[in-house]
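hiii so um. not sure if this is the right channel but i have a protein structure encoded as tokens and i wanna go backwards to a sequence. like what aa goes where. can anyone help
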């Protein structure tokens, strides 16, 4: 399997169909025009999401952040997960020190080292005061060198028979800022955890490349968005490999 425009269109249509079946019922996602129309509608609606998560970052370490993102997502289930998925796992990233905020805000997950904390996913109005208090994570921050980053997710102690796997996490880095990487990776990882593709005990190895077009699969998940320069084309910003048992 090679990442191509055809594959990206199929993945984009699948995601819309699964998350917003009511949208897929009235728009033909098999055509380029239909996908563009659906994309515009989703973008318009995402400006005012009903449900979102908030991530507060004191500092950024890729390995720790990936691990804690997966731990956070693993704790979400049932109605909360479904509602968050309906808003395409929308997450806002803010700059701040969770330790200075814990008396005012009840975070749903805090990293062991205190470098990051998550609130939600919950109705957007529940995080309004936090989002007004803190600034967005710096949009111009440069993505650090992530080559060879390996992350082992903590085991949760359950005996459900699931065998941990090793997966490659491909990231397209050309023109990518740190803030953009956070968005793309968070979407991919959170949804992979909710779908049961990533779980306790897994090992993820980050493979940065300038572009993902032409990278060979198979893949179990893709992060696909319209290209900024060519709206009629799609771009894969991150991809999760098929993996093998550890």
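sure thing!! here u go:
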């Amino acid at each position: 399997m090679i990442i191509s425009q055809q594959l990206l269109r199929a993945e984009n249509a699948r995601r819309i169909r699964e998350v917003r079946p009511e949208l897929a019922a009235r728009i033909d996602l098999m055509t380029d025009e239909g996908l563009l129309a659906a994309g515009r509608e989703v973008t318009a609606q995402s400006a005012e999401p009903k449900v979102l998560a908030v991530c507060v970052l004191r500092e950024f370490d890729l390995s720790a952040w990936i691990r804690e993102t997966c731990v956070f997502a693993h704790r979400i289930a049932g109605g909360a997960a479904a509602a968050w998925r309906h808003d395409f796992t929308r997450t806002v990233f803010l700059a701040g020190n969770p330790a200075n905020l814990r008396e005012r805000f009840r975070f749903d997950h805090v990293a062991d080292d205190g470098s990051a904390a998550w609130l939600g996913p919950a109705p957007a109005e529940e995080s309004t005061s936090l989002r007004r208090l803190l600034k967005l994570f710096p949009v111009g921050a440069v993505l650090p060198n992530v080559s060879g980053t390996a992350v082992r997710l903590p085991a949760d102690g359950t005996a459900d028979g699931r065998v941990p796997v090793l997966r490659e996490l491909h990231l397209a880095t050309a023109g990518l800022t740190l803030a953009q990487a956070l968005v793309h990776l968070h979407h991919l990882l959170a949804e992979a955890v909710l779908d049961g593709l990533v779980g306790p005990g897994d090992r993820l190895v980050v493979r940065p490349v300038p572009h993902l077009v032409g990278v060979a699969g198979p893949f179990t998940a893709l992060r696909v968005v319209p290209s900024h320069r060519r709206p009629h084309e799609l771009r894969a910003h991150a991809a999760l490999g098929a993996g093998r048992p550890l």
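oh and The first strand starts at residue 51 and ends at 57.
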